[in-house]
Write a structure and sequence with these properties.
The chain has 481 residues and is mainly α. It has a domain of 256 residues. Helix content is 75%, strand content 0%. It contains 25 helices and no strands. Helix 9 runs parallel beside helix 20. It is globular, with a radius of gyration of 23 Å. The protein starts with a helix and ends in an 8-residue tail after the last helix. 56% of the residues are buried. Its main location: membrane. It is a multi-pass membrane protein. It is found in: Cell membrane. Belongs to the NhaC Na(+)/H(+) (TC 2.A.35) antiporter family.
Length: 481
């Protein structure tokens, strides 16, 4: 137990020291160093317990390879943000939004729209990286705090992600829990916590909107004129967004869908945003074909740089590029290296086992699942670890106590899936902070849905509300397969 606890203590100490010393700048390198040093210390503890150096190294590499899918998605999202800005896609959404929405309804509308998009796409990451970016830019134009807007984006995106059969985690968790649990059964049961959590969040966002005090005097027409002076705003600019939606409905793999939309937006920009593309490349002597090709490659690689001469517009839409995601990738690699060594050496299981055995009652057992999921998001830094381990560790105990598989699956999702975005070094938290340009600590207090979901799940467990038994749902109480 001491060998299992020590790496966690080192991790917490180094992470806390990084944040205290560097503040918001800790995300730019110090946190990554802390994670890799913690991974090295965990490896030393594994060697002390008799594991071979080669096997520990292979475990760390294996853990990192599990993040290849998310890493490719990160790079694709970076490319997409760059070309969508260059093509005027995000500026057009901002233009429409500031013309239609008032500050009083802005947060509420943001959460509702992101929930709807999350339901259609099945991905909180895609929602945050596309419309989420536009809403954050919109809030800057309207003089509203971006951290609240980011919270509204995350609340809506994660509700949609949990409530659709297109989501990876929504499909994964019922399979891990087993005992005949279907995805549709899982979604119906999760709604009893997710529905009220979102409803309460929407009420809070509505009240916050009514009391919002935009910084400075907002001149909507002036803002729209400024946008129109830089970009050619038309419905054509929304074609990359429509293409991404079509790809999603057709169930094209996420990386291919994002890269396809990004490339299409880059090519579209060459024809629809000639002046912005020419100013971006900054080489008047180049021919139109060379200028277009260079613009597309540059926007996808290092991001679009808006050179309008208007500081507010330039700051808003100089974004994106695969390069902008490399710090986040570095963070993910460090977190997963630590998690992989901890899991391979059996340290995570050693930490969780006492929690399982000491949870004697239904409420305390559900609390243990939620606490384990949140703890793994902090220690392991990856949502899949936080979903997989509790599902495996607790399913036998739930079966022995006659609790339905729906109860465990909901607890895993409410804690493991939903709270991952609240941890700066978690893959979800690092990604979301990176694409939205808002620090995790800044948006965390406004992620009401993500905070309420595990709280409601634990409350239901203690009072016995909507926590079905195996007998009630007809699931085999003793079969944990």
């Amino acid at each position: 137990m001491l060998d299992a606890v020590l790496p966690v203590a080192v991790l917490i100490t180094l992470l806390a020291s990084s944040i205290i010393l560097f503040g918001a700048g800790a995300m730019d390198g110090p946190l990554q160093v802390a994670l890799l040093l913690s991974a090295a210390f965990a490896a030393l503890m594994a060697l002390k317990n008799g594991f071979a150096m080669s096997s520990v190294a292979d475990a760390a590499i294996g853990g990192v390879t599990t993040a290849m899918g998310p890493i490719f998605m990160l790079l694709a999202i970076g490319a997409l943000i760059g070309t969508w800005n260059m093509a005027g896609t995000i500026p057009s959404v901002v233009d429409v939004g500031i013309g239609l929405m008032s500050p009083a309804w802005f947060y509420l509308t943001t959460a509702v729209v992101c929930a709807a998009v999350g339901l259609v796409t099945g991905s909180s990451w895609t929602t945050a990286g596309t419309l989420g970016v536009a809403f954050v830019a919109m809030s800057k134009v309207m003089g509203l705090p971006v951290e609240v807007t980011a919270g509204a984006v995350i609340c809506g995106a994660y509700f949609g992600d949990k409530m659709t059969p297109l989501s990876e985690t929504t499909i994964l968790v019922p399979k891990l829990v087993g005992r005949g649990l279907t995805v549709s059964q899982h979604i119906r049961n999760v709604f009893w916590t997710s529905g009220p959590a979102l409803a309460i969040s929407l009420v809070i966002f509505f009240v916050m909107g009514l009391n919002a005090q935009p910084e400075g005097q907002i001149d909507t027409e002036a803002a729209q004129q400024a946008l129109g002076g830089v970009f050619h705003l038309s419905v054509l600019n929304l074609l990359p967004m429509l293409l991404l939606l079509v790809f999603t409905v057709k169930q094209i793999p996420p990386f291919l869908a994002l890269m396809g939309s990004a490339l299409f937006a880059g090519v579209l920009a060459v024809f629809t945003q000639h002046s912005a593309v020419t100013a971006f490349v900054g080489e008047p002597g180049l021919g139109p074909v060379a200028t277009g090709a260079k613009a597309v490659f540059s926007a996808m690689a290092s991001g679009f740089v808006c050179r309008s001469g208007q500081p507010v517009i330039d700051e808003l839409f100089t974004r994106g590029g695969m390069v902008s995601m490399l710090t986040t990738v570095w963070l993910i690699l460090g977190a997963l290296s630590f998690a992989a060594v901890m899991e391979y050496a059996g340290f995570l299981r050693r930490l969780i086992e006492p929690v399982v055995t000491r949870a004697k009652r239904r409420g305390s057992l559900i609390l243990a699942v939620n606490g384990t999921g949140i703890g793994l998001n902090v220690v392991a830094g990856d949502v899949y670890v936080a979903d997989v381990l509790p599902s495996r560790m607790f399913r036998d105990e739930f079966a022995r106590r006659g609790l339905a598989p729906q109860t465990l699956a909901r607890a895993v999702e409410d804690a493991g899936t939903v709270t991952a975005v609240l941890v700066p070094w978690n893959t979800s938290g690092a990604y979301t902070a990176g694409v939205l340009g808002v620090a995790t600590g800044a948006y965390l207090p406004y992620c009401f849905f993500n905070i309420l979901s595990p709280l409601l799940d634990v409350l239901y467990g203690f009072i016995g509300f909507k926590t079905p038994t195996a007998e009630q749902v007809g699931a085999p109480a003793e079969d944990a397969g």
